[in-house]
Write a structure and sequence with these properties.
Number of helices: 16
CATH architecture of the largest domain: Beta Barrel
Structural class: alpha+beta
Low-confidence stretches: 1-20
CATH topology of the largest domain: L,D-transpeptidase catalytic domain-like
Strand content: 5-15%
Helix content: 25-40%
Number of strands: 17
Number of domains: 4
Distance between the termini: 95 Å
Length: about 525
Amino acid sequence: MKYIFKAIILLLLFACKTSYDQNYIMQCNYTKVIGDSIEITKNRIAYIDSIFIEVLDSNNINLYTYFINQYPNSDSVEIAKDKRRKLFLIKEKVQESKYNIDSLLIINPCYTPVYKNIDYLNNKSFKISELYNSEIHPLNPYRNRYIIGDLNTINEKGESKGVYEVHFDIQNSWEFKILFEFAKKQQINQDSLLLLTPEKIKTLKLSSKNKKTFVHQLQLFQNYYHKVGQYQEDEMMKKYSTYRGYKYTGQQLCFCEITNDTIILIAKHVTSARGASRSGTLDSTTNEKVYHYFEAFPIGKDRKYYAPHNRIISRNWEKARKYTKYDAFRDSLTGGGNSRVTFFDGKVQLPNFLLIKPDSKYPRAMKQNGIHEGSLSNMSRCMLGTPQSLGCFRTTDYGSKFSRWWIPNNANFFIFYDEDKYTNKKISEENISGLVLPFNNNKEGNRFRLWVNKKYPEYAKSIDLEKQGSCSNCFIQLAWEKYYIEYLKSKQGKKLNYIIPKMNENTENLFPTNKS
């Protein structure tokens, strides 16, 4: 019993000693682990830094991308992103990294002058420094803007490129940044901003400096809305131009802005460039000039009709809008403009005409062309995106107003196209990957037009679908894609000898649903 008692005492003492020793050992181990962790972390940071030094030395887009993805928590990631972003402005660096330039330009066509040899005289591209507006003061932020006429209608697969507009996102514009930030804090929506008066502004809690900037941006914003924003339409999206058949389409104006070592695509608007020319003779009876029109493209012997590098040297107005002191003030910020209205042949108004001047390096390029709103005829509107003009760049009503507002005077205008991809050819219905119109004559088409106007009058009005008209144009195409199934079940639709096509993944709307 005495030995058992001693054994218990020893066990207790040993247990106590062990607990103390264990805690001590654990504490030592913890300190060692922390020390080891710090050492490991230091070594890892040193290792990552050594890799980054190698990446910096290589100065390669792919290696920067690898570093960013592999070490997202590194302190050097932001530097890597900045370095990589700048390299995308250098054509040779993009080619070195084996990027598909055509694929990149589908995402952002604003890099076209940098990546493509659009200077056909010297077979070279333009440097980033040549994109800036050299006629505007270096501190004027509007000097960073330029535009591109992207005139191909056929893509790399030989298909119709299609038109997919992107409209200006005013919320992301630097021009109204302070205004919108203040409005957000004060819970003021855009509609309320339009109603703000100078008297109301005086009651706002703003410093004198901020109030001045706020008033400045508010006036510009209200002017933008009343002269441009309220005319904004749905973004046009179509695979083909539809008017008496289907034609290749895809011509567009790209609005670009250089910001923080990158180029941002601000907007894309549909356009129609040269597809025709004319010759005139005097009528022997009236002694008036009579014109004969014929197809003409800026290709082959006429390749130099368009210069790859141009400037916008005059910004005119239109009869539908009054030119006010606020418009004059904005023009003073953007390099100049005027209230004159341009007329074609002295008769037909060309609203918001922006005069294009080819660079002197291209003496054979045609002068006196411009950007303006196109004709209001159904054919002209349906054919937007397909070459059809006499040389000017036609666009929509909203497109012309936005162009006049956004593009500064003397801005660079670059024009690009491949001769074998510039066409307005008709496409056979067998090669159309979408719903084609089934009407054989205007009687069948008008029956459908009338049905839509009676059943969906608001929709018909919104797309300008008249009760009578062509059985093959963009307006009836839109309506057909929206209501063809319902129409074929109706009394009128059953008169149409038409079988609903089997839909599969390759079948698409020729006019996809608008994003806006």
